[in-house]
Design brief:
The chain has six helices and nine strands; from the N terminus they run E-H-E-H-E-H-E-H-E-H-E-E-E-H-E. It is an alpha/beta fold and about 260 residues long. The strands form two sheets. The protein has a seven-stranded parallel β-sheet, sandwiched between helices. Strands 7-8 form a two-stranded parallel ribbon. Strand 4, helix 4 and strand 5 form a beta-alpha-beta unit. Helix 1 crosses helix 6 and helix 3 runs parallel beside helix 4. The chain is globular and about 60 Å long.
Length: about 260
């Protein structure tokens, strides 16, 4: 079977750094999803060529084979879009490997949004719904439509474990909550952590040669955390490239004993 890597989404911040990391450090095909129309009303609609150029910007032909990068449009807030993206990926894989089935070697799912409610009066229904749709429901639907690309149970002795990874957050821990606040973000990440555990139990029950985990990247210098950089010690504020490399190091070492858990590198 022919392995590939999937990063969803992969156009900015940590996820972009992860896509570039695996392009630079592996020889596998890397599939990157992107939102066709960004939320900013004035930003131009994305196209496959513009997304490819953006991801490949730091590289030249001598460092990365650009033919390894494949892009798929995917709107995380639309199940129809997620289903269509899975079908498009299936078609792409058939074109790449007409005589050999492909399987997911590594999938990293990093959809997330943060609206920090510091007190109950800050809670806003529309923002709560968006938080759960992005931080939990999108991840569930990615499992529903993309887990078909995991290697089958019959491949359990044919190669290494596939890694299915959700980017979560330490603040989703109930026992580690000592400061309060961030109600919907904390609750959505706690829910995502439960999703990770539940899906991993499914993989075990079906004898699929894969593990599911969650990872906490720390406070990364991205738009999601920008409003909180001033309160973070410099040693605890990470560049996306550094966080991506650290997360990749954790993922690379995952085995059956680490499965179904949330890891803070």
């Amino acid at each position: 079977m022919s392995p590939f890597i999937l990063i969803a989404p992969a156009t900015r911040g940590l996820s972009l750094a992860l896509a570039r990391h695996y392009l630079r450090t592996t020889t596998l095909p890397v599939v990157s999803t992107y939102r066709p129309r960004p939320p900013q009303a004035l930003e131009e609609q994305r196209t496959p060529s513009s997304v490819r150029a953006h991801i490949l910007a730091p590289f030249d032909a001598s460092t990365v084979d650009s033919s390894r990068l494949h892009t798929v449009p995917l709107d995380l807030l639309s199940e129809d879009s997620i289903a269509s993206a899975a079908d498009a990926l299936s078609q792409t894989l058939q074109e790449l490997n007409a005589n050999e089935p492909s399987h997911l070697s590594l999938g990293i799912f990093s959809a997330g949004v943060l609206y920090p409610e510091r007190q109950p009066g800050d809670l806003d229904l529309a923002l709560i719904e968006e938080t759960f749709r992005t931080n939990v429901i999108a991840h569930l639907l990615l499992i529903k439509h993309f887990s078909r690309f995991l290697p089958p149970a019959s491949a359990s002795r044919a190669g290494p474990l596939a890694k299915w990874v959700h980017v979560s957050a330490r603040v989703g821990s109930v026992s580690d909550n000592r400061l309060g606040g961030w109600y919907s973000y904390r609750a959505s990440k706690a829910a995502l952590n439960q999703v990770v555990r539940t899906f991993d139990l499914h993989l075990q029950a079906k004898k699929i040669p894969a593990v599911c985990v969650g990872v906490h990247p720390g406070t990364v210098k991205t738009d999601l955390s920008k409003d909180f950089w001033k309160g973070v010690p410099p040693s605890k504020l990470f560049e996306p490239e550094d966080a991506a490399a650290k997360l990749a190091g954790v993922v690379d070492k995952l085995g059956t004993e680490e499965r179904g858990r949330i890891w803070d590198w």
